[in-house]
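Can anyone check this?
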Amino acid sequence: MEHKPATTYIVSVFEKPHWRTVLTTKDKQKAFDMAKEIGDKVRVEEITPKVKKR
């Protein structure tokens, strides 16, 4: 049985001097909607864990 890792999207906003995570979700559209709503100095990261080989 093969298990496909789930992608996680992280929305972060820059607040001096660091990036602060605002939202962590598995829904890509929700992540981009939140980033658009926030406006400037926002980034969306996509993280997909690697599959461990046996």
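Reply from J.R.: I decoded it. The helical segments are 28-38.
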